[in-house]
């Protein structure tokens, strides 16, 4: 199934300059694996060395934060979206 992925412009150097692109996968878990396989530089920005989502990173599957989902083995459906957001602070 085709999934539309968007990443913040701060991470476009990790995705070959792209901020929005399609990805093919059957499940959400497969989509995340495919995203990191296609763009391995994203791994260190999104996940800790232990494989946990970094605290300043939000990844949304449609309207749901991955942090709220107990299981990522969700079958993908036409029109699904994956959006990566990074919290940025300043003063």
UniProtKB/TrEMBL annotation:
- A Pfam family it matches: ThiS
Cited PANTHER family: SULFUR CARRIER PROTEIN CYSO, SULFUR CARRIER PROTEIN SLR0821-RELATED
Name it.
Sulfur carrier protein CysO
Q: What organism is listed for this UniProt entry?
A: Paenibacillus solanacearum
